[in-house]
Design goal:
Blueprint (H helix, E strand, L loop, with lengths): L13 H7 L4 H4 E2 L2 E2 L5 H11 L18 H11 L1 H4 L42 H7 L1 H18 L14 H9 L1
Antiparallel strand pairs: 1-2
GO molecular function: RNA binding
Keywords: Nucleus
Protein name: Fcf2 pre-rRNA processing C-terminal domain-containing protein
Length: about 180
């Protein structure tokens, strides 16, 4: 832990800062040139810090993106894609724990077939906005929510519900 002087508590001593460095410049410099350390552990530590964080040469050195809140929400939606559409089925790879480290987001380039294109009104900024605006997904969500409400409703609720036509006439007769 760096020691601080009693006269200036905000300043950290120079000796403490030098001990925290990976290599000590006065020992590593020979005639003003950097000579790599002889200890392989120190050398590996220096090399690890200089290597860029990428997916590797097999993935064309794809960099790890910075995770923003919007990007995090989009990743969660992609992870839960099997719940969004009941007709599509996906492999178990979607259920992996944690988020992916290396990925890229892009835009879809449309084909020449005109009816399959999205209009400007249908294009949204995020995946979440696109799913919320889609009417087929809205109907599916409403139906599923109603099914859940039906399951959780108490059992004696049905006898109080007036079914059929002219319920207001029957209710009026009961009030007399």
């Amino acid at each position: 832990m760096p020691s601080s002087s009693k006269t200036n508590p905000g300043k950290v001593s120079v000796m403490a800062r030098e001990s925290e460095l990976i290599y000590k410049p006065e020992k590593e410099l020979v005639d003003g040139l950097f000579v790599p350390p002889r200890d392989p552990r120190k050398m590996n530590k220096i090399l690890r810090k200089t290597v860029k964080d990428t997916a590797g040469a097999a993935w064309f050195d794809m960099p790890a993106p910075t995770i923003t809140p919007e990007l995090k929400k989009d990743l969660e939606i992609v992870k839960l894609r099997d719940v969004i559409d009941p007709k599509l089925h996906f492999k178990k790879g979607a259920h992996s724990k944690g988020h992916l480290k290396y990925f890229q987001m892009g835009t879809v380039i449309e084909t020449q077939f005109f009816p399959s294109r999205l209009t400007k009104k249908e294009r949204k900024a995020t995946i979440a906005d696109e799913l919320l605006s889609d009417h087929t997904h809205k109907e599916y969500r409403k139906r599923k929510i109603n099914e859940i409400h039906e399951k959780r409703r108490p059992g004696d609720f049905e006898k109080w519900k007036n079914k059929g036509r002219q319920t207001w006439k029957r209710a009026k007769q009961r009030r007399k």
